[in-house]
Write a structure and sequence with these properties.
By secondary structure, the chain is α/β, with parallel strands linked by helices. It has a single domain, classed as Alpha/beta knot (3-Layer(aba) Sandwich), CATH 3.40.1280. The chain contains five helices and five strands. The chain has a five-stranded parallel sheet with strand order 2-1-4-3-5. Helix 1 runs parallel beside helix 5 and helix 3 packs across helix 5. The longest helix has 19 residues. The protein is globular.
């Protein structure tokens, strides 16, 4: 199974990029992982929020393949503990799904078309994080989940 983190817009903070890359490098030993970025919309002042959501949806939908498991990172999604998230990922691995795509939307979330295509939603916290920070938090949690599944001492309870 390959895990993909699909985001709208790229991270610009070099400190966050370095940390993301560190966890992505660590993940190589556990699971194929890739980060895909669709560009952030430009000149949005003349667009309504709904128009922005639909344009982002067009770009996101082009990244999906038949058979992909699409999981939205959404504030209204199911919340897990780190151990619960590792169990969630393990179940996905056992289903022999080729690609699981976790999606971070743009500043206004997702269009209805994306919600309709998604298989599920998860929330990393009831708190709100910047779109740049959520990428780092997510990659670290995937790494943590892999170490939990392997019984390695990274995670402490």
């Amino acid at each position: 199974m390959k895990i993909i983190l699909l985001t709208v817009g790229k991270t610009t903070d070099s400190n966050l990029i370095k940390l993301q890359e560190e966890y992505q490098n660590r993940l190589k030993f556990y699971v194929p992982f890739e980060m895909l970025v669709v560009p952030e919309l430009k000149n949005t002042k003349s667009l309504s929020i709904n128009e922005q959501l639909e344009k982002e949806a067009d770009m996101l939908l082009k990244q999906f393949e038949t058979g992909d498991e699409i999981i939205l990172l959404d504030e209204k999604g199911k919340q897990f503990t780190s151990v619960g998230f590792s169990d969630f990922l393990e179940k996905k691995m056992l289903l022999s799904i080729k690609r699981v795509i976790f999606v971070v939307g743009g500043p206004y979330g997702f269009s209805e078309r994306i919600y309709n295509r998604a298989n599920s939603k998860i929330s990393l916290s009831p708190m709100t994080f910047s779109h740049q920070m959520i990428r780092l938090i997510f990659v670290e949690q995937v790494y943590r989940a892999m170490t939990i599944l392997k019984g390695e001492p990274y995670h402490h309870e």
